[in-house]
Amino acid sequence: MEDYILVEGFKHIRHQQQSFLEKEMIERTKSLYNWMDKRRSVRHFSNKDIPIEVIENIIKTASTAPSGAHKQPWTFCVIKSANIKKKIREAAEEEERKSYESRMSDVWLNDLKPLGTNPDKAFLEIAPYLIVVFKRPFEYGESGEKHQNYYVNESVGLACGFLISAIHHAGLVTLTHTPSPMRFLEKILKRPDNERAFLLLPVGYEAEKAYVPDLNRKSLEKVMQIY
């Protein structure tokens, strides 16, 4: 059997997915579910350092996500600098105060009460790393011409899901932080004009005393329909 074929002149290599017996599939999927069900959004971080190789591996994992036309329209900016983290916290808190005071509806604020959130984002300075995910709606060619990327939000959203799973797999915690608007991140990090801030995630060990809301996830019957 050939190791590759040509499709419209492009090389396609042979793929062989590892598979398992039914009993092992059930055990593996149950084990993964039980582990992922322990994942929580955490706001109480330790400042304990993490090897940069761990962060690199996490981002490499996120980059295995599928993307429209395989354009991989994302950039992961890793922030360790205390000075930059301070600037990000100050700008994020300014936007958050405006949101809590005037942008959010009463219904929205009421929905947030069980989570115990507020404009204070101390975790942005405490966590040893911040990862800012940028989406790239288009690319520049060698002559400066623009080339469109496809299904950008969907692609970057998938990569963020992989990223969060990889963080949890490493035994670390994170929080999906989305101060709105987030254009200040592009300015602070001096990103090119084809990048837009998509998501901000502090990454680290949880604090010695970390607390999360006592919440329940929807049951399988409420999230799955079989036809």
UniProtKB/TrEMBL annotation:
CDD domains: iodotyrosine_dehalogenase (cd02144). It comes from the Bacteria. Residues 38-205 form the Nitroreductase domain. This is Nitroreductase family protein. It holds the Pfam family Nitroreductase. The keyword Oxidoreductase applies. Keywords: Flavoprotein, FMN, Oxidoreductase. The keyword Flavoprotein applies. InterPro entries: Nitroreductase, Nitroreductase-like, Nitroreductase/BluB.
